[in-house]
Structures are given as C-alpha cells and as structure tokens.
Amino acid sequence: MTEKELDEKSVRDNLVLKTALTAGRIMMENGSEVARVEDTMKRIAKNAGIEHSKIFIMVTGILMSIQDGAGAQIEPVTKRTFDLQKIVVVNDLSRQYAHHDITLDEFARQLNELDKNSLYFPFWLQLLAAAFVSGPLEVVFRHNYNLCDFLITCLVGAIGWAIFYYLSKLVRVRFVSEFIASVVIAVLAMVSVHFGLGINSDDIIIGSVMPLVPGVPITNAMRDVLDGNLVSGPARAVEAGMSAAAIGLGIAMVIQFY
Amino acid sequence: MAFLISIVATYAATVSFGILINIPRRALNVSGLIGVLAWVIYSGIVQIGGGSVTGNLIGAFVIGVASMQAARHKKMPVIIFTIPSLVPFVPGGQAYQMIKNFALGNPAVAADYLLQVVMIAGALAFGFVLSELANSLQRRYLTRQKLLKQTGIKEK
C-alpha cells in the first residue's frame, strides 16, 4: 500500500469508529439494552467493510476497536434519559446504511443532527399522558370505580409529572426530582381527601406516582442480566431501585407527618 | 361493566405511558393492544382462581412473545412494546402498602407486602425468561426455514 492509501484507510477507519460509537452512545443514553447496542455497532462496522470489531459496553461508557488500523476508542455515556424514539431512529439509519441507501458520511451527519435535537412529544401531550397513566391505573389496580377519585388522581398525577419535568431540567440528579414530585403528590392527595374532593387517599397516591415509575431501567436490567451482561444489568437495577426508593421515601415522609 | 372499564383503562394507561417514554407514534396503538391482551389473560387466570403469581407469570410471557411478533412485523426494537405493556402489571398497590406500613410502624404487615412485591416481580421476570426461550426457538425455526429455502433441500 502506498502512503496515500494508508492515509485514506486511516481516515475511513476513524470515521467508522466515530459513527459506530456515536450510534452506540445515543442508544445507551436513551435506554436501549446492551445487546441491541452491541449488535447495531457490529453491523455498522460490518457494513463499512470491517469484518471483525471488538466492542465492550458498560452503562457509563463504550469501548470499541477494529482489526488492524485505527486504535481503540472510548466514548463516555454521561446523560441518561428515556427517549425510545431515538433508538428507533438510529436503528432505521443503520438499516438504511446496510441497504446502501445512505453513505457513511451522511450517516454520521444524521447521527449528529439526531444527537442535538430532542424528539419528545409536546409538553401538553405529556401532561395529558401523565393524567391518563394515573387515573386509569388507579382504577385497574384498586378496583375503585369512584368518579371523583378518578378525576382527582388524573389531576394530581399530571401536577406530579409537571413538577418532575421542570425539576429534571434544573437538577441533574433524577432521584431528587422524583423525591420532591412524590412528596407533592402525597401532600396533594391528603389535602384533596381532607377537603372532601377525593375519598381514598391511598388509591389517589398509588395512581398518581405511576408516571414516575422507572419502567425503562427495570425492564432493561432484566433483559441485560438475561443476556449475561452482568455489569450493566445490576447497575441498571441499582438505578431503578434508587428511583423506587426515592418515590417511596417521599410518600413515607408525608404519611408519617400526616 | 367493571371489566369493560378496566380494559379501556388498561389501554389508556399503556398508550399514555408510551407517550411519556416517547415511543414512536406508529407503535403506540400496538403496544396498547398488547397491554390489553396480556391484562385480559391475567385477569382471566385470576378469575378462575389461578392466583396472581401465575397470572403475572403468564401475563409477562404473553407480553414477551406478542412484543417480539410486533417488533418483527414493524421492524422496531422489542423494548418499545414490552415496557409500556408491562405497566399495568407493576405491583404498585402492594409496594405502596409496604411503604405505608413501614412508615406507620407495622413492620410485620410491611414484610408481608414486601414478600408479595418480590413474588410478583419474580413472576414477571420469570415469565420474561420463558418468553425469551419461545422467541429464540421461533428465531431458530425461521432461520432454518430460510436456509432450507435458499439451499433448496427438502426437510425429511
């Protein structure tokens, strides 16, 4: 190989590594299971003509190397949000790349774009969704068919979610926002029963904290442990446990004061 | 009537939770339907006296298998369907009673509820394990069929 060819190869290898690592990071940040991230990254490398790649994924960082050529690179995973739409978009991009619908440069560019933008539903719709997680689940869990309790649960659940949403932007620690939101939920439930708006404060609290339940970490912890990822699985279980404990503590505190 | 209300409530809760974790719009309806299907089977098992642990186990199994079919059909990751549909199975009521009794100083009652939470969570996890087994069996069958088709060998 001439010097020029070697240079080109190294530039391309670096681009492949960068693209695969960015794709992996976006997926890890937004709550994908480890096996899927590894699979997607391997596919990207393979479709770029690199037969053998070695990938090591943890919840807090990704390490990847490819056969002869560029050295291994590390990509830290610092954020942790739940935006499953982004996982689907990365998946689709990877599929398009496999079918040669987009080039590697285009792929890298679109990933950067995706990384910058947030694809969340509008806030009012999230608020409505929080209300409709809370109310119906109060009915399903407690077999409480009282209309007043249903409406109050919807309202309290939506307020709790709004508090969680805004605190998450202010405070980086997720558990703090969950704790404060659950305190507010418990207080509002107690107050509403005190003024005769609701009947059963237990049912109202149970329904209203449901939007805060860490569903993504719990499910992922289970899947990761089953796949044999014994580092990521328990780490995610700890995350889920901390969230559950934060919610539980908030409620317990209010109950004790009451 | 109560049953109908519960079905509508399960659907609404599943779809709404899907919105909160931002799953793609075209997956919302399907995940709601999977949630309802699993919940109907669960409550059927509880009705005939199968117990809530068995109900949760089979409910989680149904979610795992149905989500895999949906994922294969829609070409989307499977967690998009499993996470929202598991929401009606979360042992929220028991967990709340546990916390409440701990806070009010009834550790014996709280321990009882804790055991229930652990049992239900374990049943859900084990149902998931079983569905993984069914899914990998199906995957093996499908790849085998594909391979046979490509090579043109007739199966004996």
TrEMBL record, chain A:
InterPro entries, per database record: ThrE-like_N, ThrE_Dicarb/AminoAcid_Exp
Family membership noted in the UniProt record: Belongs to the ThrE exporter (TC 2.A.79) family.
Record keywords: Cell membrane, Membrane, Transmembrane, Transmembrane helix
Pfam families: ThrE
One function term, GO molecular function aspect: transmembrane transporter activity
Regions crossing the membrane: 119-137, 149-167, 179-199, 238-257
Protein name per the record: Threonine/serine exporter-like N-terminal domain-containing protein
Superkingdom of the source species: Bacteria
GO biological process, one term: succinate transport
Ranges of residues in domain Threonine/serine exporter-like N-terminal: 19-258
GO cellular component: plasma membrane
UniProt-annotated location(s): Cell membrane
Membrane disposition: Multi-pass membrane protein
Coiled coil: none
Entry keyword RNA-binding: no
From TrEMBL, chain B:
Any one of the GO BP annotations: succinate transport
Stretches assigned to the Threonine/Serine exporter ThrE domain: 7-133
Coiled coil: none
Keywords associated with the record: Cell inner membrane, Cell membrane, Membrane, Transmembrane, Transmembrane helix
GO cellular component, one term: plasma membrane
Transmembrane listed as a keyword: yes
Main location: membrane
Cross-referenced Pfam families: ThrE_2
InterPro entries on file: ThrE_2 (IPR024528), ThrE_Dicarb/AminoAcid_Exp (IPR050539)
UniProt membrane topology term: Multi-pass membrane protein
Superkingdom: Bacteria
Entry's localization field: Cell membrane
Transmembrane region(s): 34-64, 76-93, 113-134
Family per record: Belongs to the ThrE exporter (TC 2.A.79) family.
Descriptive protein name: Threonine/serine exporter
Lineage: Bacteria, Bacillati, Bacillota, Bacilli, Lactobacillales
